[in-house]
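Field reference: sequence -> structure
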Amino acid sequence: RVVGVLRRSNLPVRGLAVTPDGDGSSRLTAAIVGEAPAVDRLIQQVRKVLGVRDARVSAAADVLVQEVKP
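Structure field:
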């Protein structure tokens, strides 16, 4: 459901990762490129998705990016 919201937003997705969380749920991390109002709107839409516990924005300067090549 969340991926559908991301797709419909028409914002460029630079990266997407799904990892298990400690309590049996999953964590989805998406690197999105866009203007602040569009990203804020996307966060509001993601928060409305059933089962989403938290959605937040991190500034690019606060994020560590590491590319893993197969």
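Note: DSSP finds two helices and two strands in the chain.
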